[in-house]
Amino acid sequence: MSYDAPDPAWPYAPATEKHPLPDRHIWLRVLETTDVHAHLAPYDYHRDTEVPHYGLARTATLIAQARSEAANSLLFDNGDFLQGSALSDIGTGPDSAWSGPHPVIAAMNRLGYDAAALGNHEFNFGLDWLDRALSQATFPVLCANALRAGTAATPLRPPSIILPTVLRDSRGEQHKLHIGVLGLLPPQITTWDHQHLAGRVTTRGIVETAMTEVPRLREAGADIVIVLAHTGIGPATPAPASADPAAEHAALALAKVLGIDAILTGHSHQVFPDPWAADPPMPDVDHDNGTLAGVPTVMAGFRGSHLGVLDLCLVQEDATAGWSVQAFHCRARPVAPPDGTAPAAADPDVSAILRPAHLATLDVTSRPVSHTAQPIHSYFSRVRPCNALRPVLEAKTAALSAALAGTRYAHLPVLAATPCFKSGGHGGPTDFIDIPPGPLNQGHMAELYPFPNTLVGLLLTGAQVADWLERAASCFYQILPGQRDTPQPLWNPAFASHALDTISNLGYRIDLSQPPRYDPRGKLANPGARRIRDLVHDGAPLSRDAHFCVATNNFRAFGGGPYPAATPDIIVHQGSRTVRDHLTAHLRENGSHSTLPDPGGWHIDDPRDATLLLETGPGVRNHPEDLAALRARDLGVDTTGFLQLAIPLAALADLANLRRKP
């Protein structure tokens, strides 16, 4: 344990000779986990195998190591800790037979978190369930910008806390500092979990809330202010007051709020600072020094893949002055180092605490549901209809048709919409569906549909259905013709991986020679652009005036992704049963699952004299027949672990034509 600068080998620390420190100073180590999503054990329940690169039990070992290196440390979680794995959603979820303590809270209690912030996924199972889970926590859980609806608009949780903390300085002397901690989350929770929060919760913007709450913390005596901001980095703003109050990714704008000493961020599942960041540099985003607009910042990946380590050097000009940050070190330590050295071992105490829940989850996920004669995978879900979507689409169609039977909508054709939730992106190169031929069990149901969304039915016209598809097709970059030898990136990473919806029982071409009609927020970007061509339903051109009932989920129905929120007059069904439950019931009732894509479906068509660059998982190499069918050229694995494939666009069109032949 050292009272001097921790982690001196960190190459991106400000040079101390440029920032001479007084004889008396304090190093405070701030540790962050974020977006753990209940991945406690280093285990993939979908594939029934241990994994080396994530799991809070492994992160716990890094936490112990980081604490041992520093005289003073605090541990925080930045939100999205309660939902997201088979353990939390199936094995010990609200509909399970689990009666023990919530395993996530039990593990966090054991690790001694000093505070946590709510993330958006904490609300997926409703407020009552959330209150029960948090009642078990021995640490404060904060949220400043979610309020209980009503005239009083009281905070849903404590907005902030001041932690009286005894810290040792460089001489070994003790000082009592007051550490202010503020919790913030995306204001979109009332959209994404509308069915749970409508009429019960309202939200405020991230930056506008910080502009009010940070001065309050200072006035209440906070020496240092740390913000737990469950938000991605996002675009810059000239000044905090000009920030978009509805911004989902607001960390960069937040950094310009006066009085903030450090930001722990998350939500986007990325790593910051990242010395190997491949993206072009953004103004005020400094990966070398780990700052946003000059403010020390860290983001620790997701699923416990990293531990954020932020060291603040605090100085006091004289005995009567306040403390301030004079130097800092920022990094995100990986559970599995990129140099190939052994990953951090799972902490035995945390492993022991979660073992009963782990075994209960294994019991549930192993229960048989159905059977598949062919492999099911999502490695090509961005370039062709994905066979993993067919059972989901069929289950949604059957469920909505049954719900509408006997109503005035029963005569209308039912369509179903769904994205592929596991298609890489921020989920990483292993975040793909890959189910071999054989039995399908409950764990596979969570792989096919990982979120606890509920079924919603919408009454839409043909024109609205066509617009829905335009929004989905906007996820792709515009592709220039005549570039067969130079692969062009297909996917615009500004769109979430789950923004690409497929709608059943339709056939259409996607013309990527056209610019995208919508931007990632669903705003009209190119009014004259239309990428959807030859749209047909049941073999006939789709009429813009026809009416359909479309089965979707609550996230999409209420404005999730680049899609408009449904108005009450077009909602024809709103169920409480999860889509995953409908999927499980559908496959049980129908026995074996045929994995062939829907006849026709969609395909990318123009420009046919171009080659696409697809980023996918290396696991696709285990499916050589699919690689051959697409005439895909293997360009190798990049520094982030994704496999790069060059695919002639003409191959996609040829494959679609083959599927149509009787």
Please, could you describe this protein's structure?
With 662 residues, this protein is of the alpha/beta class. It folds into 2 domains: 28-361, Metallo-dependent phosphatases (Purple Acid Phosphatase, chain A, domain 2, 4-Layer Sandwich); 367-660, 5'-nucleotidase,  domain 2, CATH 3.90.780. Helices cover 23% and strands 27% of the residues. The model is unreliable at 8-17 (pLDDT under 50).
CATH superfamily descriptor of the largest domain: Metallo-dependent phosphatases
Q: How many domains make up the 3D coordinates?
A: 2
User: Between the first and last Cα atoms, what is the distance in angstroms?
Assistant: 73 Å
Named at the architecture level, the CATH assignment of the largest domain is 4-Layer Sandwich
The SS-based structural class is: alpha/beta
Proportion in helices: 10-25%
The poorly predicted ranges are 8-17
Instruction: Return the CATH class of the largest domain.
Output: Alpha Beta
Task: Supply Rg.
Answer: 25 Å
In the CATH hierarchy, the third-tier topology of the largest domain is known as: Purple Acid Phosphatase, chain A, domain 2
